[in-house]
Design a protein that fits this description.
Layout: H1 3-9, H2 12-20, H3 29-38, H4 43-63, H5 74-79, H6 83-95, E1 100-104, H7 110-117, E2 121-126, H8 129-140, E3 152-155, H9 176-179, E4 181-185, E5 190-195, E6 201-203, H10 214-221, E7 226-231, E8 245-251, E9 254-263, E10 270-277, E11 280-285, E12 301-305, H11 307-311, H12 315-322, E13 334-336, E14 345-355, H13 358-367, E15 370-377, H14 384-391, E16 397-406, E17 409-417
Parallel strand pairs: 1-2, 1-4, 2-3, 4-7, 8-10, 15-16
Antiparallel strand pairs: 5-6, 7-9, 8-9, 10-11, 12-13, 12-14, 14-17, 16-17
Helix pairs in contact: 1-8, 3-4, 6-7
Length: 418
């Protein structure tokens, strides 16, 4: 988004026009644009508010009803933190005893909103001028406890920020400012100028491609009492700094981030997994994960841990919880004769174990009258879509197959979800 459009969107006219629009319907967008222009609205404003209406419709599932008061960009929406996760970030920093948080790379301001709601003073910056304008709008209406100062939003680079406010230079370690100051970073993980057909820039996963740089992220984290950085779930375990906590977070079964915590924000140094859902939160740490159990026979049940648990390398916690081994090192599935309900793992009853061979699988599924199959794959080189087409199934039944390895051999497990 260009700066002119951002300034246009924060005008009272745009705010009122957005409020008056019906729910976005792509089939009616052209007719609605014609009516808005006929009513005297400029082509630029008409296009801007309709684009916002479309982004709000797209973002409702992720951001909830709060989306109705937000101004968005396509890239910003994709990288925006879900409210449930943002509240967790704010709680971590608030529990660290800090009072001031520098949000460096604030994007649309979703994390900053949660920080303000938690009673923290926020100074937010973003390198993109248009994004900074939208972030200031998104933060303006956030209720603030007591006489808390309104959030400061500026367009700047993280490299140029003075963490002590008006004092030139960075925070002196051990100073009073350092003890009450935190840094929150959401480094850009997209390649500027390389966009797809929707206008979104290409996502990057390499630490060397972060902006601000990985080196600066670590340097800033070492200057304050507490720090957090929202990174990709693909963060290599070997890249976790000494003494830091790397927490893989999932929401409704989707791994949404790996958050690195430093200083007083560290609760469990090393790798942790946080599984969030409407029903609450489950935390797993390296202390919960026993050394790998010895491989054994296939038991009555197969358990699949939440993806955050797998990403964090904590499948051992599932082995410990159900007293059974992983089917094969690295596949994530655990087999056990113990029937146990876990909020962070799914349980399947094993109906049949088959060699991972197309003819064998086809014969089995036809024998049971299966016309539809759900394929779950991990740890084997199989194209599930190609396999499904090749099976040429007929029948009224359905089945679930887990394509994986057991004791070093590729297998197809016919299972029933419990």
């Amino acid at each position: 988004m260009d700066l002119e459009t951002a300034h246009l969107l924060v005008t009272p006219e745009a705010t009122e026009l957005l409020r008056s629009l019906p729910g976005y319907d792509d089939r009616q967008a052209l007719a609605l644009a014609t009516r808005l222009r006929a009513a005297g609205h400029s082509p630029g404003l008409t296009a801007a508010v309709l684009h916002q209406s479309a982004l709000r419709a797209r973002g409702r599932a992720k951001l909830g009803d709060a989306v109705d008061s937000l101004l968005l960009t396509a890239d910003g929406l994709e990288q925006a933190t879900r409210p449930q996760v943002a509240r967790h970030h704010a709680q971590r920093l608030g529990s660290a005893g800090v009072t001031l948080v520098h949000d460096l790379g604030c994007g649309l301001g979703l994390d900053a909103r949660a920080l303000v709601e938690a009673g923290l003073v926020v100074r937010a910056i973003d390198t993109d001028p248009a994004t900074a304008v939208l972030a200031a709008h998104n933060l303006a209406a956030v209720p603030r406890p007591g006489d808390q100062a309104p959030p400061e939003v500026a367009c700047a680079r993280a490299e140029d920020v003075h963490l002590t406010g008006d004092v030139a230079g960075t925070v002196r370690p051990g100073s009073r400012d350092a003890r009450h100051t935190a840094v929150w970073l959401d480094p850009a993980r997209r390649t500027p100028g390389v966009a797809d057909v929707t206008g979104r820039t290409r996502r990057t996963w390499r630490l060397d491609d972060l902006a601000p740089s990985w080196e600066l992220v670590r340097s800033l984290a070492g200057q304050v009492a507490a720090a957090g950085a929202k990174l990709s779930p693909a963060l290599p375990h070997a890249a976790i700094p000494d003494g830091a906590e790397a927490q893989w977070v999932s929401w409704r079964g989707e791994v949404v981030e790996c958050c690195l915590w430093w200083g007083d924000a560290v609760a469990h140094a090393g790798r942790t997994a946080l599984v969030l859902s409407e029903g609450g939160a489950c935390l797993l740490t390296e202390d919960d994960a026993d050394p790998a159990w010895a491989a054994g026979d296939l038991a009555e049940w197969v358990y699949e841990p939440d993806r955050a648990v797998i990403r964090a390398g904590l499948v051992g916690a599932l082995e410990r919880a159900v007293a059974g081994p992983e089917l094969d090192p690295g596949v994530g599935y655990v087999t056990s004769s113990v029937e146990r309900d876990l909020p962070w793992a799914r349980r399947f009853r094993v109906m049949e174990s088959l060699p991972l061979q197309e003819k064998v699988i086809r014969a089995h599924l036809r024998e049971i009258g299966c016309g539809a199959v759900t394929l779950k794959k991990r740890g084997v080189d199989v194209d599930p879509d190609r396999l499904r087409r090749s099976l040429r199934l007929k029948g009224s039944g359905s089945a679930t197959l887990i394509l994986t390895r057991h004791a070093g051999r590729p297998v197809a497990l016919h299972v029933e979800p419990s």
